[in-house]
Amino acid sequence: MENNKLISKIINEIRIPERKHFIRYFLDLKANKSKYTAKSYEKDIIDFFNVDDIEHITINDIINVTIFDAENFILKLSHEGKSSATINRKISALSSLYRWLLKFGDNSTGIQIIKYNPFANLKEEKPKVINKETEFLTKEESVKLLDSIDTSTVLGLRNKAILSLALTTALRKSELINIKLGDIIVYNGISAIKVIRKGNIKDMVKLQPSVEQLINEYIKKTGRNKNDNSDEYLFIGHSSNGLNGKKLNPNTLNLMIRKVCKKAGINKKLKVHSTRHTAITLAITAGASIEKVRDFAAHKNLATTNRYIHSIDKLKNNASDFIDIV
């Protein structure tokens, strides 16, 4: 107990910039690479400690957690019906916080804040992640989907611009919603969009002329232009729910895709990741090289791109092709 009081005294004396709470500072470090990761971590940490705000968690709360608490958290989430991916993500978030705290040591006393990460050795306890096959569209379905959208309204024009862009660039959800008007550029005579990839990496994606035309029509219909409104988000809300004119919520995109698919008569459970999967698959089937697809999809590892190619080749050159009995 005395040791805990000393540790609490030390943590209170640490000069964290702007007098931030220690976990808030940890989340800010995460947000420097990915704001979405930081937000996800915050929710997971709050969930485990059962508090309303991250600032309510004390260093003693951190110290008092044991492996039994960690294991019980897994059981609780399982009983609540949480998916294996969700459970593993939450454990990963908490483990990341404890790994960060393990780095701290006080030079004057030799005291560490913590000496053990209760979330680090839960391989046997964590559920096996079941990777669901991502549904994607064929070329014919992609055309059908886009043709079904009524562009006479600003909402329809926006939705077609988003889906056209997603299906021709393989952009991720965060990359799509964070595009600003000033990010639409012409580089060496080629129309492109500047995007921020995973890990805060700057990149550019090529704009197909037809997609660029849709985007320009949408910008004009919203009464904006690329020069005067360069700092505004490209895709914004057009509703009466308080989000009109504001940056899109990530969940809005998934909801929009489901609605458009239903209207088009496409019976597939699609998400934004499905449009990315579709774009990558279409590029591969059209004959793009693995190197070009890797750059197109912004995969860090060629092995990730190879998985797409392997899945397609598995269907193309299948053993069933040698069976002729029907």
Write out key terms for the chains shown.
2 domains, DNA binding, Integrase_recombinase_N, 326 residues, 52% helix, Tyrosine recombinase XerC, globular, 5% strand, mainly alpha, DNA-binding
Question: What's this entry about, in short?
Answer:
With 326 residues, the chain is mainly alpha-helical. It is 52% helix and 5% strand.
Write the layout of secondary structure elements.
Blueprint: H1 2-13, H2 22-31, H3 35-49, H4 59-63, H5 67-79, H6 84-102, H7 139-147, H8 154-169, H9 173-177, E1 184-187, E2 190-196, E3 202-206, H10 209-221, H11 250-264, H12 272-285, H13 290-297, H14 302-316
Antiparallel strand pairs: 1-2, 2-3
Helix pairs in contact: 2-3, 3-6, 8-10, 8-12, 12-13, 13-14
Walk me through the structure.
- With 326 residues, the protein is mainly alpha-helical.
- It folds into 2 domains: 2-102, no CATH class; 139-319, Intergrase catalytic core (hpI Integrase, Chain A, Orthogonal Bundle), CATH 1.10.443.
- 52% of the residues lie in helices and 5% in strands.
- It has 14 helices and 3 strands.
- The protein has helices spanning 2-13, 22-31, 35-49, 59-63, 67-79, 84-102, 139-147, 154-169, 173-177, 209-221, 250-264, 272-285, 290-297, 302-316; strands spanning 184-187, 190-196, 202-206.
- A 3-stranded antiparallel sheet has the order 1-2-3, with no helix packed on it.
- A hairpin with a 5-residue loop joins β2 (190-196) and β3 (202-206).
- α8 packs antiparallel against α10 (209-221) and α12 (272-285) runs antiparallel to α13.
- The model has no long low-confidence stretch (mean pLDDT 85).
